[in-house]
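Quick sanity check, LPS export ABC transporter permease LptG:
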Amino acid sequence: MSKIDKYVANSVLWSFLIVALVLVGLDFTLTFIEKIKGVSDTYPIQSLLQVLMYRLPGKLAEYIPIASLIGTLVGLGTLASTSELTVMRAAGMPIWRIGLAACQPILLIALLGMSISEFVAPAAEQKANLIEKMQNQKDNAFSLTGGVWLKAENNFIYIDAADKTGKLYGIQIFSPNDQQLKSAKKAQTAQHIQGSEWQLNQVTETLFFTDHTEVKSLDKASWNVSIKPEHLFLASQDPDALSLSQLMSYQLYLSQQKLDSSQYELEFWMKALRPAASLALVIVALSSVFGPLRSSTMGGRIFSGVMIGLAFQNGLNLFGRMSIAANFPPLIGVSIPILICLLAGIILMRRRG
């Protein structure tokens, strides 16, 4: 890499880092303001800050494409405003060479983002989710939102949260008899023993009879269910809290059970194609810097980058959700806005020479 290539790459890299820091900081601040109203004795502000800190790696990985777009606009725009790009072009440096130099740091950052999405963000996000859900356990309250419903051995099972060790939190087991409810069990926690054997802890069981009900409380009770603990853990997590390998594994399990796996497939492709999205947006930024934004102010470039980024993100969400609603492969839905940006950027770049 020549000195000019390094100079362009460093300009884009530093601009990206500043933009990423601003975006993540704004997200952290706005989320804190929104969530602080939920602070209570069972959910102190320290827990809220811990949850937000755990979610920072995932937010960083999520903002990489938009930060790449705005960072490229700002980095190359700064060079354009000082006529350095004009000097490079006058010296015979083609646009594609400048674009290649700008893409190199973004590609490395995008690959780093993939590593964060696979190894760091999922574990941190899952810890954050567990802290949030455990606040309902402190006052013995069970929430029937935010967890997962399952059906096994003709029983309907609700799990509020789970961790990787095979421990479940906030379990409710409803056992029907034809059209009537036979019994309902509530357990604070459940621990996997072996095979299909589980142990329920701090159990309250309600038996329903035709003329009365009976309530029993037990410290421990056995529970047999033919679902693997790793599948229960994955089922209790939101798709965006899973790594690429976890999404692939659970997607395969759902397909084998002939269940709908489109949400997990969509999330898999949205994460897997982030590097491609980052490069496509960089090409759009390049075509803009050498075109309509050549003489624009820094504020104008940032505003344009935000607008393009919002349009891209909304298009990604729109076509992704549309793929689920219209029942066509999520890969196509996620690829459409990326390909549109890539083709538009390439066409505009060719026109600029």
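Posting the structure with no commentary besides this: Strands lie at 148-152, 155-162, 167-177, 180-194, 197-208, 213-224.
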